[in-house]
């Protein structure tokens, strides 16, 4: 498993998961840095002081085009390759005074951000604009009015995004993973990608926390002019102003998620919320969760889902920490559709708890399960860790032969996931038409150590739950 903070992205082998802490870029930490993806060699370090020639060049390339590749100073004070995704004029600025929305090509999209010109090393600009980006923009069937708005101001995207999303059915309700995208035609998908590329809401306030968001979420248009939204931590209604939230909190009589408490152990509780009975809550949760989930986009009705909300409880109420959703009936044997731990609670073992909980529900149903694909980078890391620990713990204790089918029956983990996990650990061999598990105790110990901490345990004796049955 990767080290804290900067493991490789397990899906594309390139991106890191977490930003390093912000630090003072004038300090000693500024060191030359490797990693250049097509950048001139001198772009790796501090940009040189400005000469007449570079001033001229600057004038000729500004404002930068969308699609430009350049090096950008990040919060670690080092220069990293970025691609310009969007640009907008600065209030009260001159004709070339733009801010740029950039994607760090080494990192996950959640780290995309607006940067100022000073952060860019203009000597490293690659002037060839990415044609795909250009194509995307020109291929959109936008009205002249829409185009003008984008060309002139670059700030109208969220509203258009909402409309495009609504047209192709991405708004309000639940979404499915990209795996379901075959139902969208390629043009709609391109439109969706184009219009969700810039985060619309920068931060949210939820309970005690102010949280920076990661991705675009298709909030109704009236919310898209607000950089910050205020959520009621219990009913998840969201508001544009703090005073609205304060007024709301005086009236809101919820002190925990709506629905049934199905688990309580110490200060931890799990609530089951039926999307059909609590539609607005389900939809609010989707708006909120989409801010932290990238590849979950296709519309689906909340009625068809159950939401399992994990809370930390105290005398003020039950505060949401994370959740997972689950289809009431899944033909693909998915036992989890989306999983989220809210950022302030991440890396404390709650993700592993939620995953373990989803398998405990599957065991009670007498089924095997698997998470809906695709998994995000963090989702894959968490699942791989969970599968490794659960399977190797059994293999360590087990005497004699054991089959993948038996492992699957014991754990409710789908056979394919067991196979890929053991294969990735090189614990499986194919002999005489059969998969054979080769488990040397020393090798098992090494892998278990690498798989990290076990996380918070689910105490099954505290789970009071019967599988969902359609009523009436
Ligand atoms: C089917 C799907 O829904 S796929 C989408 C999955 N969801 C998302 O991507 C939404 C945003 N991400 C999240 O909500 C969270 O990162 C989750 C749910 C994936 C994991 O939640 P957490 O509460 O952080 O998980 P938890 O603390 O149990 O850690 C899980 C393990 O994953 C790995 N991991 C999680 N986050 C990171 C990170 N930022 N950097 C490195 N490793 C990480 C670690 O191995 C960690 O174990 P460790 O802390 O013992 O080393």
From TrEMBL:
<dbReference type="GO" id="GO:0006281">
    <property type="term" value="P:DNA repair"/>
</dbReference>
<keyword id="KW-0805">Transcription regulation</keyword>
<dbReference type="GO" id="GO:0005634">
    <property type="term" value="C:nucleus"/>
</dbReference>
<dbReference type="InterPro" id="IPR040706">
    <property type="entry name" value="Zf-MYST"/>
</dbReference>
<dbReference type="GO" id="GO:0006357">
    <property type="term" value="P:regulation of transcription by RNA polymerase II"/>
</dbReference>
<feature type="domain" description="MYST-type HAT">
    <location>
        <begin position="196"/>
        <end position="467"/>
    </location>
</feature>
<keyword id="KW-0539">Nucleus</keyword>
<dbReference type="GO" id="GO:0010224">
    <property type="term" value="P:response to UV-B"/>
</dbReference>
<dbReference type="InterPro" id="IPR036388">
    <property type="entry name" value="WH-like_DNA-bd_sf"/>
</dbReference>
<protein>
    <recommendedName>
        <fullName>Histone acetyltransferase</fullName>
        <ecNumber>2.3.1.48</ecNumber>
    </recommendedName>
</protein>
<dbReference type="GO" id="GO:0003682">
    <property type="term" value="F:chromatin binding"/>
</dbReference>
<dbReference type="GO" id="GO:0008270">
    <property type="term" value="F:zinc ion binding"/>
</dbReference>
<keyword id="KW-0156">Chromatin regulator</keyword>
<dbReference type="Pfam" id="PF11717">
    <property type="entry name" value="Tudor-knot"/>
</dbReference>
<dbReference type="InterPro" id="IPR000953">
    <property type="entry name" value="Chromo/chromo_shadow_dom"/>
</dbReference>
<dbReference type="InterPro" id="IPR050603">
    <property type="entry name" value="MYST_HAT"/>
</dbReference>
<dbReference type="InterPro" id="IPR025995">
    <property type="entry name" value="Tudor-knot"/>
</dbReference>
<keyword id="KW-0012">Acyltransferase</keyword>
<dbReference type="Pfam" id="PF01853">
    <property type="entry name" value="MOZ_SAS"/>
</dbReference>
<comment type="similarity">
    <text>Belongs to the MYST (SAS/MOZ) family.</text>
</comment>
<dbReference type="InterPro" id="IPR016181">
    <property type="entry name" value="Acyl_CoA_acyltransferase"/>
</dbReference>
<keyword id="KW-0808">Transferase</keyword>
<dbReference type="Pfam" id="PF17772">
    <property type="entry name" value="zf-MYST"/>
</dbReference>
<dbReference type="GO" id="GO:0004402">
    <property type="term" value="F:histone acetyltransferase activity"/>
</dbReference>
<dbReference type="GO" id="GO:0000785">
    <property type="term" value="C:chromatin"/>
</dbReference>
<dbReference type="InterPro" id="IPR002717">
    <property type="entry name" value="HAT_MYST-type"/>
</dbReference>
<keyword id="KW-0862">Zinc</keyword>
<feature type="region of interest" description="Disordered">
    <location>
        <begin position="1"/>
        <end position="60"/>
    </location>
</feature>
<dbReference type="GO" id="GO:0003712">
    <property type="term" value="F:transcription coregulator activity"/>
</dbReference>
<dbReference type="InterPro" id="IPR016197">
    <property type="entry name" value="Chromo-like_dom_sf"/>
</dbReference>
<keyword id="KW-0479">Metal-binding</keyword>
<keyword id="KW-0010">Activator</keyword>
<keyword id="KW-0007">Acetylation</keyword>
<keyword id="KW-0804">Transcription</keyword>
<feature type="compositionally biased region" description="Low complexity">
    <location>
        <begin position="40"/>
        <end position="51"/>
    </location>
</feature>
<keyword id="KW-0863">Zinc-finger</keyword>
<feature type="active site" description="Proton donor/acceptor">
    <location>
        <position position="372"/>
    </location>
</feature>
